[in-house]
Each structure stands twice: as structure tokens, then as C-alpha cells.
Amino acid sequence: MSNGEKWSLENAAAGAIAGFSTVAVLHPLDVVRTRFQVSDGRGGSCLPLYKNTAQAIYSIARMEGLRGLYAGFYPAVFGSTVSWGLYFFFYSRAKDRYTKGSDQSLSPGHHLVAAAEAGALVCMLTNPIWLVKTRLQLQTPFNQNRPYIGSSDAVRTIFKEEGWRAFYKGIGSGLFLFCAYEELRKIAINLKSRREKTDLKDGDRLLNSFDYAMLGGASKVAAILLTYPSQVIRARIQQRPSSDGIPKYLDSWHVASETARFEGARGFYRGITSSLMKNIPSASITFVMRSGFDVAITITREWIACITGALHSTKLWGICLESCFKKQ
Questions:
Q1: Could you tell me the pTM of the whole model?
Q2: Which of 47, 85, 86, 318 supports an S-S bond with 15, CB 3.0-4.6 Å?
Q3: SS3 state at 133
Q4: What is the pLDDT along the chain (328 residues), one digit of tens a residue?
């Protein structure tokens, strides 16, 4: 296995561990955000009307218990772990391909292309997971449809009732975060290197945990503000059809036109408070843990190299001593 392939696998492991670690604590906010996103305030929905994030959490906990607050938890954990792991793996491979294995830095254009390429591949592979998560999070005791009994039952039912294309409803959003992070990271490295007059090649070492937390949070804020309308559209189009099998929305354009017509601009930002409350710390923790994992991998690699070198030197020394004794 080449050094580039090893580094790609290490990045995948770092991303997977970081993604997994942030879901459990913040998942109730994800449930609240999803329910706010699909609530158009026009009635005809099985979801209760929530006033704000705190009231929504209290209401869900009181009426549905812990199960309601953690609806869709397993696909959320699996999706977060897989998506971050795959993203860092594909992104590292793309960068290696564009640099052709050399140590030269990528141009901003190549950074964006590599990030978009990795993001597109991740979206194609994980969109079914996010659709199942959304469906499970929108289930309430007031649903008219037969409820999904877990993730596997949801997959079987969706495939049986709607076909495989249903798993790719709402695909096309979620790429901006990755591009924003890499560009913000590059800006931070440039600014900090100018202040400390350090070579840009050591940029990763210039960033401490606080810097990574700020980068993760800032990139997530930028991504949310710029892409949130598309997230609302995706959540609404991923809703389960009514009991008669008729979906509420035909396509993304239908969602956008209906939302603008009945709710105005505010409709495209429903649930943004709970989204920010969830995603800013989530992104910060993810990138802090990923950077820490990278440092740990680097230290471990150097330690193994030192041990290997020492053992090799000891072996050579033993050969020399043995040769000297034979001559005597």
C-alpha cells in the first residue's frame, strides 16, 4: 500500500470517528430542526405546531419520550460516520490525484474541485440514509400511515411503496460546507503564518484546536446561511406520501413555489435556530477531533519509524559485533 493510500485511509478513519462522536448529544436538536423545516403552518400535517426550539424539545419529550427525541438516531449515526469518513477519503484521494503525489500545494480552483468532487460522491452514496432518517424523525403518534418499525422496515417499505428512486429525493444540497471549510482553513493558515512568519508547508501544525473549532463553526454558519433554503426544500420533498400514496410535493420546484407563495422568505428558514444550535458545535467538534486524530496518527507514525530505525540499527550493530568475534 502506497503512502498516499495509507494517508487516505487515515483521513477516512479520522472523519468517521469525528462524525460519530458528535451525533449522540446533539441529535434531539436535529429532530426539532427537521420537524420545523417541514411545518408550513397551513394545517393538514400530523406534526404538532411548535413555538420555539425549547418548547419543541419539551413537547416531544412529554408526548413521545426519549424515543421521540432520538427518532432516526441509528441512520443519523451511521450516515454521519460514513459521510465524514467517505468525504475525507475521497477528498484526500482527489488532492493526491491533482498534485500527482508531490508535496506542492493545490490552487484554490483545484481545492474547490476536489471538495465538490468528494461532496458529490458522498451525496450519491448517503442520500438514502438521510431520507430514512428524515422519515423516521417525522413520525409522530398522530401519523395516519402505518409507522416504520425501525430503519430496516423503513427501507423495505419505501422500496415497496415508492420504488428505488424515492431514496434519491432531495439529492443535490450539502456540498457547500466542504468547500467552505477548505477555503476558510487556507485563509486561516495564511493569516497565522504571516503573523508567526512560518513556512506555509507547516500549515497544519499552525492550527491548534481552537482554530479548528472556529474553522468548523464558521464554515458551518456560512454553509447554513447560504444553503438552508435548499435544506428546507430537501426535507419537505423527502416527506412520506399520505396514506393514499399521493406526495404533498411533486418536485423541488413545486416545493419552492408553494413555500414562497404561502410562507414567503421566512418559510425557507424555518428551523434555522435549532439548526445553528446543533450544527455549529457539531462542526467544531468534528474538525477538532479530526485534527487531533491526524496529529495522533502523525506522532504514532513517527514513533513507529523511530522504533523501526532503532531496531534496524541494533540489528546492524549485532551483525558488526558478530563479524568482529568471528575474525578473532
A1: 0.71
A2: 85
A3: helix
A4: 555 555 556 555 655 666 666 777 789 999 999 999 998 877 666 788 888 999 999 999 999 999 999 999 999 988 887 887 888 888 888 888 888 766 677 776 777 788 778 888 888 899 999 999 999 999 988 877 888 999 999 999 999 999 999 998 888 665 555 555 555 555 655 555 565 555 444 545 555 555 655 665 666 677 677 778 888 998 999 999 887 778 888 888 899 999 999 999 999 999 999 988 887 776 656 555 555 555 444 544 544 454 444 445 444 444 544 555 454 4
Residue 135 CA, chain-centre distance (Å), reads 19
State which fold the 3-303 domain adopts.
Answer: Mitochondrial carrier fold (1.50.40)
Q: Give one DSSP letter per residue of 160-186, joined into a string.
A: HHH-GGGGGTTBTB--HHHHHHHHHHH
Backbone angles phi, psi at 60, to 5 degrees: -65, -45
Q: How far apart are CA 293 and CA 289, in angstroms?
A: 6
d(CA 222, CA 17): 24
DSSP string, 2-56: -HHHHHHHHHHHHHHHHHHHHHHHHHHHHHHHHHHHH--SSS--SSPPPSSHHHH
Burial code (b: 16+ CB inside 10 Å, e: under 16) for 255-276 equals bbebbeeebeeebbbbbbbbbb
The cell numbers describing 37, all together, are 423545516
Domain ranges of the chain: 3-303
As a whole number of angstroms, the distance between CA 219 and CA 86 comes to 19
Say how far apart CA 43 and CA 45 lie, in whole Å: 5
Determine the length of the chain: 328
DSSP-assigned beta bridge partners for residue 173: 171
